[in-house]
């Protein structure tokens, strides 16, 4: 019997994203691989999603990412409006075997309230779950809602209550063939990430300025793709772009460090993104938090580009120190490793992705595709449980 998975991507960005989009990039890769394996995929996301699926159910015409970092009381309705669409689809459709959820907190919080006639749920955790101790510390999946971590470090840091409901760890993966391998790395250094305090753009900019090394910061600021759109959105009252925490971070801690060979180039996508990744002398990840997944790390390695970052979160699971990059325990160490990026063999970087972090491996271990031998032969198959 052919498996049907409802993938809940959330309302923030299309799948695949036009430029920035961590979770949505993962889903674009995973969905394509699942469908190659014969899995039917119903995608609940936004209407501008272009990935080929068996059915697209849209909650909004386009992504709502620009609101993601706004004050909670201004944006709380977006995720719940999206979940109304998801629940309506589950009530309408009789062909869903399992829901694979990717919407932080609101996804399992809503889906767990549905009755036993609805499909079981697996949520992949793409974030630091410690920021939601009251939810994940108390949540009871009642044998119908389960979780998958994306790194061992993420599972280690999770509340004990959540760890008991984790089916396992499924490292993220990328399609190596989709990333151009390049041995020669003419530079500059590159940091490809959403601009926010957790990612640490201020550290990368400060270190590169101090060492007089060229650096490109690529990524949106609170959903704004470039300086022009950011300026146009600021209404001067503090309630526009300037009232956003990520915008404040950019303006107060990153922008003063820009100039000369240290530049913010906004969001990049498509061919330009791949060119920057493959040409970079090193990809920088001075994470200020326990980064759970690290898709951008794998994308850099797939291009043969070494990684220099902090020894935090998933990075020690993805980067072999001295072989595919360098991991630092302080800003001083981080600065010392940047000039040594040329010591890393690009072929070793590419090889680790092909052998350990490919999309095929991710899809092959994805918990949402596990079949249950107790599946009935027809009709709504929600009585099935995900095996623990």
Automatic annotation (TrEMBL):
Residues 20-175 form the Glycosyltransferase subfamily 4-like N-terminal domain. GO terms for biological process: carbohydrate derivative biosynthetic process. It comes from the Bacteria. Coiled coil: none annotated. Gene3D superfamilies: Glycogen Phosphorylase B. Residues 191-336 form the Glycosyl transferase family domain. Keywords: Glycosyltransferase, Transferase. GO terms for molecular function: glycosyltransferase activity. This is Putative glycosyltransferase. It comes from Carbonactinospora thermoautotrophica.
């Amino acid at each position: 019997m052919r498996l049907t998975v409802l993938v809940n991507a959330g309302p923030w960005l299309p799948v695949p994203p036009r430029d920035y989009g961590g979770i949505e990039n993962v889903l674009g890769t995973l969905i394509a691989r699942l469908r190659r394996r014969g899995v039917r995929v119903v995608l609940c996301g936004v209407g501008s999603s272009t990935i080929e699926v068996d059915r697209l159910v849209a909650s909004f015409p386009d992504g709502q990412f620009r609101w993601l970092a706004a004050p909670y009381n201004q944006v709380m309705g977006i995720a719940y409006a999206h979940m109304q669409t998801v629940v309506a689809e589950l009530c309408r459709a009789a062909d869903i075997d399992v829901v694979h959820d990717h919407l932080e907190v609101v996804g399992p919080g809503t889906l767990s309230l549905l009755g036993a006639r609805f499909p079981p749920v697996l949520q992949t955790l793409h974030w630091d779950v410690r920021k939601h101790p009251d939810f994940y510390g108390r949540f009871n999946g009642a044998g119908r809602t389960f979780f998958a971590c994306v790194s061992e470090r993420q599972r280690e840091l999770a509340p004990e209550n959540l760890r008991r409901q984790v089916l396992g760890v499924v490292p993220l993966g990328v399609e190596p063939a989709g990333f151009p391998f390049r041995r020669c790395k003419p530079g500059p250094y590159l940091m490809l990430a959403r601009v926010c305090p957790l990612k640490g753009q201020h550290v990368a900019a400060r270190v590169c300025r101090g060492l007089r090394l060229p650096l490109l910061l690529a990524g949106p600021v609170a959903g704004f793709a470039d300086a022009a759109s950011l300026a146009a959105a600021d209404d001067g009252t503090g309630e526009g772009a300037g009232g956003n925490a990520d915008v404040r971070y950019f303006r107060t801690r990153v922008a003063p460090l820009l100039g000369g060979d240290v530049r913010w180039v906004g969001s990049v996508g498509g061919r330009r993104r791949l060119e920057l990744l493959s040409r970079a002398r090193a990809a920088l990840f001075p994470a200020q938090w326990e980064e759970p997944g690290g898709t951008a790390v794998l994308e850099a390695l797939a291009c043969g580009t070494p990684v220099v970052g902090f020894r935090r979160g998933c990075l020690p699971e993805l980067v072999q120190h001295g072989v595919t990059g360098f991991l630092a325990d302080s800003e001083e160490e981080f600065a010392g490793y940047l000039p040594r990026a040329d010591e890393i063999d690009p072929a070793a970087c590419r090889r680790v992705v092909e052998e350990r972090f490919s999309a095929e491996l991710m899809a092959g271990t994805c918990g949402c595709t596990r079949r249950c031998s107790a599946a009935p032969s027809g009709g709504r198959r929600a009585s099935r449980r995900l095996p623990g």
